[in-house]
Amino acid sequence: MILVAQVSDTHFDLGTRNVERAQRVMAYLADLRRRPDVIVVTGDITDSGKPEQYAEARSALQADLPVLAIPGNHDERAAFREVLLGAPPLTDPVNHAHRVGSLTLILLDSSVPGQSGGRLTEETYDWLHATLAETPADDAVLLALHHPPVFLHSPIVDSIALAGPERLAAVIAGDERIIGTLAGHAHTAAVATFAGRPLLMGPSTASVLGGEWELAPPERVMDYAPDPAIALHVVDDQHRLITHFRTVPMGGWIGTPF
Ligand SMILES: [Fe+2]
């Protein structure tokens, strides 16, 4: 099997709280009996895109396994590239592909500079098609992006979701290798389908955002009480996708004989 850990919406903001929560999550992943093959960070790495916040992220998200990050609406591509990736501070989309075993992960930058809502650019679609064309025919493919391409009945998130999701849906529907899509942005663990495949929203390590049964606009309520949470995606030998969500207690574990 292949194990993909998803960390999301860390919102590094130069305060100690979000750093400690991300460090706790990374320590949890490092201590697993079967460690992940890769860690995917689905956007909003920082709270406001400052270089110093990316320096916090670079330090807190360090691991001796691949860590792949894409921007969210709170990020800034130039600082993201320069500080987090150690690359020239260009402002074109930050897209990545990574292959582990027979799984190809394709991470798409859905951020739009200066806006909270998401969109995949023409350039990103060209890159996605080229990457899929180079992907082995018998690989499984997992897509990841920050903005969910469906409404989640989460009032704040739905107002700044992915624009033009039909185009991404057509790509997924036309490629049987794509076993699912991972998203962030929602600040809650959530599950849906999109283009007939699973769509998994990884929770935030920083805070929880309620659904419409909990919030009514213009309320803007983030719940900062819950412990950080992550998603663990298993891709089994039949290329089936199985997802576990896990809360990582800041106070550590209390083990009980089973
Ligand atoms: Fe976020």
What does it look like?
The chain has 258 residues and is α/β, with parallel strands linked by helices. The protein has a single domain, classed as Metallo-dependent phosphatases (Purple Acid Phosphatase, chain A, domain 2, 4-Layer Sandwich), CATH 3.60.21. The protein is built from 6 helices and 13 strands. The chain has helices at 16-31, 51-60, 77-84, 122-134, 155-158, 165-173; strands at residues 2-7, 38-42, 67-70, 96-100, 103-108, 140-145, 178-183, 190-194, 197-201, 208-209, 222-223, 229-235, 241-247. The strands form 3 sheets. It has a 6-stranded mixed sheet with strand order 4-5-6-7-9-8. The protein has a 5-stranded mixed sheet with strand order 3-2-1-12-13, with no helix packed on it. A two-stranded antiparallel ribbon has the order 10-11. Helix 1 links the parallel strand 1 and strand 2. Helix 2 (51-60) crosses helix 3. The two termini are 25 Å apart. The mean pLDDT is 95. Keywords: Hydrolase, Iron, Metal-binding. Pfam families: Metallophos (PF00149). It comes from Nocardia jinanensis. Belongs to the cyclic nucleotide phosphodiesterase class-III family. GO terms for molecular function: hydrolase activity; metal ion binding.
